[in-house]
Specification:
alpha/beta, Aspartate Aminotransferase, domain 2, 2 domains, 4-stranded antiparallel beta sheet, 12 helices, 13 strands, about 40% helix, globular, binds pyridoxal-5'-phosphate
């Protein structure tokens, strides 16, 4: 049972408005994991200035953004595919590589399974281990790679926050190479991590020709409504993905936003510092005030297991009455009806969240 995830995801403000009879300005959204500082300050201004360029088609080859991203990541432009969000890249990976079997590690982002199944792949699951904060066993993971044509790995994983070490990533890639399996590492949230924690196979793409990295620009730059993401891989793989893409699927305003966002270093650094600090505060505060288990997330969200007195759906409903949206995780395979996820927002907003959780759960105010 969940209220606002009618279409499978958090951040559905229309559903929330209808359920809780509030307008968007009254809602504080912890159900989608978006940069709490919003887009870089100059970005909105620039989009307003450039809005008249929508009378032209966008560049079908995304040349400028590809060049900028190639510079940023020290790769060739041919190693990059720009997509209408990382979600489109997931779809193109499946369409372009045509796996017959796709491996997923539950609990994980639902689109891996949904798109792979929709395009005809058979899903093969493995489960993260509760006693290891949902990291899968090494042997299960290596076996999954051996037994499938393509495996999705969230890094950091949504909703658990599981992150892999460099050695673990290399071992997965070596296994993928050996067993001729595509390894899709979804790094949609990696930008929120401080640099030393951003373990990635980015520098290893020439060596591992089966590896595809996915990045999202919608979360870190707070433009989910505009849609922008990209994939990084060997040029041969990128060409296969690109062959399945609808021309102009990435719109002009998204390309402009992407090019501008990459020059906003100060905003990036401020975001990373805020998220790290606030995540620790929110985790401690929930543990101390409510006594719930908070899993050790690494990105801009936390997975929480509420004690038996109440389900996550009941909590979501009561919090919604107060204008605060949280993400029930009951529908994730591998999780329970006691699990929910919250985004990390600004200090003041996080305090509102904690206060409301205490009112609902300890003081029984609204249920
Ligand atoms: C793990 C993960 N990957 C990819 C996506 C899709 O991101 P985008 O908005 O760039 O399509 C999401 C969105 O929630 C996500 O959680």
């Amino acid at each position: 049972m969940a209220y606002i995830e009618r279409y499978g995801h958090g951040g559905d403000l229309l559903t929330a408005r209808q359920l809780f009879l509030m307008d968007s300005k009254q809602l504080l959204d912890f159900s989608a994991n978006i940069n709490p500082l919003g887009p870089p300050p100059r970005l909105i201004e620039l989009l307003k200035e450039q809005v008249e360029t929508i009378v032209h088609y966008p560049d079908p080859a995304h040349r400028i953004l590809k060049q900028e991203l190639a510079k940023k990541h020290s790769v060739l432009p041919e190693q990059i595919l720009i997509g209408n969000g990382a979600a489109e890249c997931i779809s193109l990976v499946i369409l372009g590589l045509q796996p017959q079997t796709a491996g997923v590690i539950y609990p994980c982002f639902s689109e891996y399974e949904q798109l792979a199944a929709a395009y005809g792949a058979k899903i093969k699951p493995c489960y993260g281990k509760l006693e290891n904060d949902f990291k899968p066993n090494r042997s299960d993971l290596l076996q999954l790679i051996a037994e499938t044509d393509l495996v999705f790995v969230g890094h950091p994983n949504n909703p658990t926050g599981v992150l892999y070490s460099r050695e673990e990533l290399i071992e997965m890639a070596e296994q993928a190479q050996k067993t001729n399996t595509y390894l899709v590492i979804d790094e949609a949230f990696i930008d929120f991590l401080p640099n030393p924690k951003q373990t990635s196979l980015l520098k290893e793409l020439d060596r591992f020709k089966q590896v595809i990295l996915l990045r999202s620009m919608t979360k870190f730059y707070a433009i989910p409504g505009l849609r922008l993401g990209y994939a990084l891989a060997h040029p041969g793989l990128i060409a296969k993905l690109q062959a399945k893409q609808v021309t102009w699927s990435v719109n002009q305003m998204a390309l402009i936003a992407g090019e501008a966002a990459l020059n906003e270093k100060e905003h990036e650094e401020k975001t990373i510092v805020l998220v790290q600090e606030q995540r620790n505060n929110v985790k401690r505060s929930i543990e101390e005030n409510l006594g719930w288990r908070v899993f050790p997330g690494q990105a801009n969200f936390l997975l929480v297991r509420i004690t038996d007195k109440m389900t996550a759906a009941e909590l979501q409903w009561s919090m919604g009455q107060k204008g605060i949206l949280i993400r029930s995780c009951a529908m994730y395979p591998g999780l329970t009806k006691q699990d929910f996820r919250i985004a990390i927002r600004t200090e003041k907003e996080n305090q509102c969240l904690i206060q409301a959780l205490i009112e609902v759960y300890i003081k029984n105010e609204t249920w």
